Amino acid sequence: MIAAGLGFRRSATFASLFDAYEKASGLALPDCLATASDKAETSAFQALAQATSLPIAQITNASIQAQSTATQSEASSAARQTGSVAEAAALAAAGPGARLLGPRVVSDDGFATCALAERTAR
Q1: Which of 39, 42, 85, 96 is deepest in the core (most CB within 10 A)?
Q2: What SS3 state is found at 37?
Q3: CA 74, CA 28: separation in Å to the nearest integer?
Q4: In this structure, are residues 65 and 36 in contact, taking their beta carbons and an 8 Å threshold?
Q5: How does the average pLDDT of the chain come out, rounded?
Q6: Which helix (H) or strand (E) holds 44?
Q7: CA separation, residue 41 to residues 13, 37, 47 (Å)
């Protein structure tokens, strides 16, 4: 199971999200998209889900805050009390024992990030 976690500003467009997703998915093809539950219904995120035909995992703030991330963003720390929303959402969606496939990547416009996490079947 591979989850693509996305973190993004409210002003992020579909192009922002798709750019970050495309950069991250070069590592592996994800099975779902994940983000903070209050951002999952935004039009840009919904458009990404439709374009990729991937199901959405809505991650609670408590689950995001419970994850240990590889990178640290001041904006994410202030807004969500996590180093990276993208990394935390990916880890939470992939499930217990998941690991990041790499650090988050940033869209060219700087409005979106994406990270992949994998949980292997045991």
Answers
A1: 85
A2: coil
A3: 28
A4: no
A5: 93
A6: helix 43-52
A7: 13, 8, 10
N-to-C CA span, the chain: 11
Distance of CA 9 to the CA centre of its chain: 12
31: Cα separation from own chain's centroid: 12
Cα–Cα distance measured from residue 90 to residue 88, given in angstroms and rounded to the nearest whole number: 5
Place of tokens 């539950």: 37
Structure tokens at 61: 């703030």
Provide the token pair at 17. 């999200």
Structure tokens at 95: 């499930």
Q: What are the structure tokens assigned to 63, written together?
A: 């689950």
Cα–Cα distance, 77 to 70 (Å, whole number): 13
Q: Each residue of 52-101: pLDDT tens digit? A: 999 999 999 999 999 989 888 888 878 888 889 999 999 999 999 999 99
Would you give the DSSP letter of residue 72?
Answer: -
